[in-house]
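Components:
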Amino acid sequence: MKFAIPKHIRSLEPYTPGRPIEEIKRKYGIDEVIKLASNENALGPSPKAILAIKEALPYLHRYPSSSGWELCKRLAEKLSIKPEQIVLGNGSDEIMGLVGHVFLSPNDEVIIPSPSFSIYEKVACLYHAKVVKVPLSEFKIDLDEISKKINSKTKLIFINNPHNPTGTIFTVYEWENFLEKVPPFVIIVLDEAYIDFVEDSRKINSLNYLKDFKNLIVLRTFSKSHGLAGLRIGYGILDAPLAHYLKLVRDPFSVNSLAQIGALAALDDEGFLEKTRKTIWEGKAYLMNEFKKLGIMTIPSEANFLLIYLADKADYICNELLSRGIIVRSMKSYGMEEYLRITIGRPEENEKLISNLKQIWAKV
Ligand SMILES: Cc1ncc(COP(=O)(O)O)c(C=O)c1O
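Structure:
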């Protein structure tokens, strides 16, 4: 019997993750593999989170807190907002889906920058909404052009700051100008997965705008700067009455207990956060300088990754690096086949990348 899979499901593209370390070890028969492909934390998980999780293991027979009250309370204190404004998710990916669940109906329009994080498009497709793509302008999200695409069918706008895969940010002027142009019936999802890595002191403080713009949803995650990608925990910050609806549609136990406990401990691990930032900023300066010496164009990034331009050599170099046990991210699935995205690693990982790249570069 043939199952009738709806067209909008059949047309979904599978997510292209960074290649797993074990797969590369098997494929090339090598013991040492470094992964600079998924923008994970170069230093591992927050040590305070590891300790707290170990202590929580005997209680795994209990269901997790459905509301995540402890974590929401602590987050609210830290961010000077109300706990009711926070929605926890199984990664910020889950919150993106919840937003689709609450706001989207067939034939609505969703505006996204192109290229951009693939889950935004997936969410729109899942709810039969039309995706309106707005190309980047000089590697930056073109907020002005996005605002021009809004019409009466527009329900959602997904943007990220810093942007993945370029690492660029927008200015306060661009942001405020944009906010004024978006009608209140259009939800703006501002994904700040990489916000802790921003070095530029002129970065926007998104939470300051929540009071005046009830249509704003800010997304953050513990996956990057706190090093907890494997636990799957992120959160949305939004107006409390809207947050209520996101919580209504969420699976009550989607955020597991270890994730809640780990995140709570990581939140107060200031030392780890500082060390992470320092590692990224120093690694970024080192890598940018080395790429420059090789004549490789790099997009100035405010995130924990760098996008580099390698023209028609990108695919070859990506595979060569793989065969030497260095996983970087091909940008083919982003429609940028001439680029590679490289997560900034620990100093020794960055040095290994550069010494191998130099050898490959000399031959291309
Ligand atoms: C822009 C952006 N948003 C969100 C995520 C995913 O966050 P989480 O692990 O919390 O689902 C990523 C992961 O790479 C990302 O690049």
